[in-house]
């Protein structure tokens, strides 16, 4: 290896190999010549001595470190380097320069490693299969809309900790018991089993939060007894204790937001479309752990035969205006129910109406935030009554809400400006009546607006001919006329031929 510089690393390698190998072999492994190896063996080729680095400039923290910084560090372990830096710049600017900030931060970090207080340690947990399910509510940051209107909602997330299987459900009423119970029971049903323990944070829907460990609400106590799980919660204000769900929350939200961006739109036609989108995203995530999920399923407790009640119950009477009031929201109901007394089951996303024991109708639930009031009007509920008195349409308090979509708003604006008042009301009511039959709403609205774009308003007769119920074909019956002489046989004592 003549002419090549021998490094300290090569010398160390040679000395290591030389313990077990011949000189020639050790030299070859170290990449040096045999002659160089001989000089190393004769101690004529030594490692270079490293130079002791000498400080080239004065320590900028020397005047203030002992008398000022150390007392502060010992006084409060939570004081930050920025807090100390601001103090030095304000009160010790004569002995401390603001350019020494990084030096100060490094020195404080080093001191705390050597002399600071003990730090929190993360203890990794082992979770047996079928042991723990954990759940929480979370918000999604993406601006989701339904038909271009802001869509207020939350996500209920449930996770089997051992395998990582996740269930996510869109909820509408905030962190209510109805939303919590519905989400949790749906998660049990989806996973086909119940874990031994279910952990939450201090949800007001589940806990009275009086300070005791088991201050369950009465409804949550019933849910626990029905499914047979142990309910626990993480300590108030300590989010990392619920880390098994906090982390999936972030991952699910990130996946949904990315999926929305890939989709190219945050707008959906209806709630069902958005719920299906969320479910598809979650299912894609769960496919990755399908094998582990099947293993944990076998360890879950068996589901009870029936679900627990996840609704609140009210009794209402249908007014003469064909409406009911539930939680500051007025709903129209089919006019056949006027003056009847209904039992109402209020769920997170819908309302069931019972007349006696019979489920009579289901409404999509609407929420009125704060102390506000809202209306949910469906023209199909009252159109049969309105068609008998069409002039009531013009001044109705619900007039604009009776129009099902923008196309019908366009139709009303046109007839209201081009026809007499009574004629316009009559036309609009008859069109709505026709739209309510045989699912004509979308097709009829598009037909009339397309004609308006051509400068022509189709007549009621044209609309009826195109979208009205077609009469069933009358079968052709051939009748063979008998002879009059045959009546003679029916007359007592008559002539018989």
Strand order, sheet with most strands: 5-4-1-6-7
- Provide the residue-averaged pLDDT: 86
Radius of gyration over all CA atoms, rounded: 41 Å
Contiguous runs where pLDDT drops below 50 for at least 5 residues: none
Number of helices: 17
The profile of the biggest β sheet is: 5 strands, mixed
CATH class group of the largest domain: Alpha Beta
Specify the structural class.
Answer: alpha/beta
How many domains, in number, for the residues? 5
- The dominant shape is elongated
Q: In whole angstroms, how far apart are the ends? A: 146 Å
CATH superfamily of the largest domain: Ribonuclease H-like superfamily/Ribonuclease H
CATH architecture of the largest domain: 2-Layer Sandwich
What is the CATH T-level topology of the largest domain?
A: Nucleotidyltransferase, domain 5
Helix content: 25-40%
The number of strands is 15
């Amino acid at each position: 290896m003549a002419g090549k510089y021998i490094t300290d690393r090569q010398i160390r390698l040679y000395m290591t190999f030389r313990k077990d190998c011949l000189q020639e072999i050790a030299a070859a492994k170290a990449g040096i010549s045999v002659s160089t190896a001989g000089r190393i063996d004769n101690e004529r080729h030594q490692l270079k001595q490293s130079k002791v680095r000498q400080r080239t400039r004065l320590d900028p923290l020397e005047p203030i470190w002992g008398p000022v910084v150390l007392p502060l560090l010992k006084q409060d372990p939570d004081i930050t380097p920025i807090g100390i830096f601001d103090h030095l710049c304000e009160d010790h600017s004569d002995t401390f320069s603001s350019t020494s900030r990084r030096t100060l931060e490094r020195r404080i970090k080093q001191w705390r490693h050597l002399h600071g207080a003990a730090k929190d340690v993360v203890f990794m947990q082992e979770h047996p299969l079928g042991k723990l399910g954990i759940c929480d509510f979370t918000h999604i940051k993406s601006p989701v809309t339904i038909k271009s209107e802001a869509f207020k909602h939350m996500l209920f997330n449930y996770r089997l900790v051992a395998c990582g299987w996740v269930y996510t459900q869109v909820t509408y009423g905030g962190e209510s018991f109805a939303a919590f119970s519905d989400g949790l029971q749906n998660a049990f049903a989806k996973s086909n089993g119940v874990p031994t323990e279910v952990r939450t944070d201090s949800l007001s829907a589940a806990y009275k939060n009086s300070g005791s460990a088991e201050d369950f609400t009465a409804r949550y106590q019933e849910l626990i007894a029905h499914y047979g799980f142990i309910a626990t919660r993480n300590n108030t204000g300590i989010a990392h204790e619920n880390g098994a769900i906090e982390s999936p929350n972030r991952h699910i939200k990130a996946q949904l937001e990315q999926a929305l961006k890939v989709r190219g739109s945050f707008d959906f036609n209806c709630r069902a479309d958005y719920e299906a989108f969320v479910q598809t995203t979650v299912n894609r995530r769960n496919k990755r752990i399908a094998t582990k999920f099947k293993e944990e399923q076998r360890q879950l407790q068996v589901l009870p035969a029936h679900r627990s009640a996840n609704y609140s119950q009210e009794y209402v009477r249908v007014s003469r205006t064909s409406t009911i009031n539930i939680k500051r929201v007025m709903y129209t109901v089919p006019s056949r129910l006027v003056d009847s007394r209904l039992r109402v089951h209020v769920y997170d996303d819908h309302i069931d109406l019972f007349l006696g024991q019979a489920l009579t109708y289901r409404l999509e639930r609407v929420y009125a935030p704060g102390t506000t009031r809202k209306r949910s009007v469906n023209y199909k509920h009252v159109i049969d009554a309105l068609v008998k008195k069409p002039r009531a349409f013009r001044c109705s308090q619900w007039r604009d809400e009776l129009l099902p979509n923008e196309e019908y708003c366009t139709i009303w604006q046109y007839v209201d400006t081009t026809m007499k008042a009574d004629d316009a009301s009559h036309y609009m009511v008859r069109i709505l009546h026709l739209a309510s039959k045989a699912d004509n709403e979308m097709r009829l609205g598009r037909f009339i607006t397309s004609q308006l774009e051509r400068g022509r308003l189709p007549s009621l007769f044209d609309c009826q001919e195109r979208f009205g119920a077609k009469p069933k074909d009358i079968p052709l019956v051939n009748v063979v006329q008998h002879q009059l002489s045959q009546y003679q046989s029916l007359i007592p004592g008559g002539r018989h031929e």
